Amino acid sequence: MELTLREIADIIKGELEGDANLIIKGVDSLESAKPGDISFFNDKRYKDILPKTKASALIVKKKTALFNGPQILVANPALGFAKVAQIFSSPVFRYPGISEKALIGEDVIIGKDPSIFPFVYIGSNVRIGDNVTIFPGTFIGNNVSIGDNTLIYPNVTILDDTIIGKNVIIHAGTVIGSDGFGFEKDGARHIKIPQRGKVQIDDDVEIGANNCIDRATFGKTWIKKGVKTDNMVHIAHNVTVGENSIIVAQAGISGSVSIGNGVIIAGQVGIVDHVKIGDNAIIGPQSGIAKDIPASGVFSGSPAIPHRLFLKSSVLIPKLPEIKRKLINMEKKIKELEKKMEK
Predict the structure, then answer these.
(1) Arithmetic mean of pLDDT over the chain
(2) Do residues 53 and 71 make contact, with C-beta atoms less than 8 angstroms apart?
(3) CA separation for the pair 164, 156 (Å, rounded)
(4) What is residue 281's predicted lDDT score, i.e. its pLDDT?
(5) Which of 88, 184, 220, 233 is most buried, taking the most CB atoms under 10 A from its CB?
(6) Which of these, 151, 155, 156, lies nearest to 169 by C-alpha position?
(7) Residue 94 — pLDDT band, cuts 50, 70, 90?
(8) CA quadruple 313, 318, 321, 327: dihedral, nearest 10
């Protein structure tokens, strides 16, 4: 793959400063780029690298004198770079057709141009769309539906009745449709509540590695269009995740939580059951959510509080021992004054 800088500038709708005919053959970071590569500069912490980089061109927000070469100016260099990187990225390897070593059940319909690797298991009454890729070790249960252009990496488990949309990516080791964690106490024993629902994953979703997405008790656990989850995310039964939301690694979302559109949930966040997270809310890392979060709210801490209040509180925490010492001294002085006044 080779593109001129003019072609790249047109693709990302940027303003080109420099040689429009320069040929670009790849993308890389500032540190690792070589002649023929394009990189991007979006963070002043890396300005010291600019004079040293071997990149042939940069994507930047404002033209910088620290780099002596062509530059493409865009409002969001990271986004521009992401679009260019997609063009230069190598396509995923596909097995040609359906392997004879794949085990396929009855009444299975498979669309055009499939890539089904050896040692894939597909249950009965499954519907698989066009151009679907399924890597080895994947288990697909009965009555599953998978949309066009979906990519399923190795050792994924998709259990009965799951619905997966188009253009979905599911990374290795993820389990979709396992039982929700539902038990009712009977004396000293815990009685299992059968989980009779399903999981629905809409179009353009990307699920990270080793996610666990539980089926609903009744109805469905619903991951809506454009959602992206990082590795090691747990989504419990009957959760709804709104469109274009992001959930970062090691977050745990309890049952029946409703997450709005465009929400960002940072790493290691824990959310208690049955709460609602409003559209475009942001939850900071390691937060504990015990009540509803309003739309566009920014919350941090455990229990979570508004982010600005969290920052103010965090500044005070290291000072608490000194504040305590001062309070004790003040109490002593007050008592001494009271004794003097009594005399």
Answers:
(1) 96
(2) no
(3) 13
(4) 98
(5) 233
(6) 151
(7) very high
(8) -40
Coil/strand/helix, residue 63: coil
Between the alpha carbon of residue 322 and those of residues 160, 177, 319, 333, the distances in Å are 59, 52, 5, 17
Q: Is 190 a catalytic residue?
A: no
Tokens for 296, please give them: 């566009």
CATH assignment at residue 140: 2.160.10.10
- Domain check: are 15 and 144 in the same one? no
Cα gap 60→55, rounded to integer Å: 13
* Residues 123 and 158 reside in one and the same domain: yes
- Both structure tokens of 289: 């959510």
Q: Which of 62, 88, 114 is the last residue of a domain?
A: 88
Same domain? For 108 and 203 the reply is yes
**What H or E segment, with its residue span, contains residue 331?**
helix 320-342
In terms of residue numbers, what domain contains 18? 3-88
State the pTM of this model.
0.90
Query: Token pair for residue 186?
Result: 């009977």
In angstroms, the CA 8 to CA 38 distance is 10
What is the number of structural domains in the chain? Answer: 3
- Name the band, by pLDDT with cuts 50, 70 and 90, for residue 162: very high
Q: Given the structure tokens 């396992």, which residue do they identify?
A: 178
For range 51-64, the mean pLDDT: 96
Q: Would the pLDDT of 172 be above 90? A: yes
* 282 and 333 together in one domain: no
Active-site annotation holder among 171, 237, 274, 307: 237
Phi, psi of 73 (to 5 degrees): -95, 125
CA–CA separation, 136 and 158 (whole Å): 13
Could you tell me which residues are beta bridge partners of residue 289? 271
Rounded CA separation 284/78 (Å): 22
Q: Are residues 264 and 319 in the same domain?
A: no
Whichever domain contains 7, its CATH number is 3.40.1390.10
With a CB cutoff of 8 Å and minimum separation 6, the contacts of 265 are 245, 246, 247, 248, 251, 253, 259, 271, 277, 283
Question: In which band, very low, low, confident or very high, does the pLDDT at 210 lie, cut at 50, 70 and 90?
Answer: very high
241, 112: one domain: yes
Examine the domain organization and report whether 274 and 169 are in the same domain.
yes
My answer on whether 197 and 259 are in the same domain is yes
DSSP state of 87: H
